[in-house]
Amino acid sequence: MQGSSEQCDDRTDRHERPRPPKLPQFAKQNVKLWFAQCDALFRTARMVEDDDKYSCIVGVLEMDVAEQVHRLVVDPPIFGKYEALKAELILKFSDSLSEKQDKLASMELGANKPSYLLTQMQAIGLDLVSEAYLRNLWLRRLPDPLRTVLAATNEPLVVLAAKADELAALNDNRRVASLQDVGTPVLGFNAEDQIARLTAQVAALRTQILGKPKNEKEEEIASDWCRFHRQYKDKAFRCLPPCSFPKNA
């Protein structure tokens, strides 16, 4: 009898309804992302039954949201009610194609990090435009000096965004330090001076990322040559020491 009782308890445990997870508040601004969170919580709770997931979603909808899907709340289908409710909510609260295009075109950097702006653009634009177009659109939203440095590289967007954050932070730190050095209030800082300093910083940063131009490297090497080799290189007919020009050249 004891063995029979244990078997009965095992069957009860196996068929016990899973405890419903605590779902986040419904997010009108990004319904797809909200459902992705809910689905992850359902998997963690091992909730797989259609009725259970449907009931969890209906239970967290505020009245104004529930009114938008009134038919599916009051008279849901017999089968597939969760997926039907999910599809209807995404349709009701997602931007139209033209709205997404307008939103993407109007996005600005503001006080945000460059990587944050890119993430926001990707959330809207990856289904609308190519990655190359999104890359160019993002670069055009960055300050001119920063864009000049980054546009010269062909690195993946995720790497480019990280570099953009570093360069933007470096520029901010240098600007604050320069203001403290001269004791000038931020609001009274001369715009022309700011541009000049920023331009100089960009040149230095560009050199760090891309390396020195070829002609500068050649000039550094040639500075240790004698005047004959500097002028005629391997065609020189004389050599005046000290001269570092390769003897076998």
Note down, in words, how this protein is organized.
Residues 23-103 form the DUF7041 domain. With 249 residues, this protein is an all-alpha fold. The chain has three domains: 2-93, no CATH class; 97-211, no CATH class; 213-249, no CATH class. It is built from 14 helices and no strands. The longest helix is centred in the C-terminal third of the chain and has 26 residues, at 157-182. It is elongated.
Can you give me a brief rundown of this structure?
11% of the residues are buried.
Layout of helices and strands:
Layout: H1 2-14, H2 31-44, H3 50-60, H4 63-68, H5 70-74, H6 81-93, H7 97-106, H8 114-125, H9 131-140, H10 144-150, H11 157-182, H12 191-210, H13 214-222, H14 227-232
Domain DUF7041: 23-103
Region (Disordered): 1-23
Protein name: DUF7041 domain-containing protein
Features:
DUF7041, single chain, 14 helices
Helix content: 55-70%
Q: How far apart are the termini?
A: 100 Å
- Regions with little confidence, pLDDT below 50 for 5+ residues: 1-14, 176-191
Structural class: mainly alpha
Number of strands: 0
User: How would you characterize the largest beta sheet?
Assistant: none
Strand/helix succession: HHHHHHHHHHHHHH
User: DSSP helix count?
Assistant: 14
The mean pLDDT is 76
Q: Return Rg in Å.
A: 32 Å
Question: What would the principal axes of the Cα set say about the shape?
Answer: elongated
Our estimate of the beta-strand percent is under 5%
Total domain modules: 3
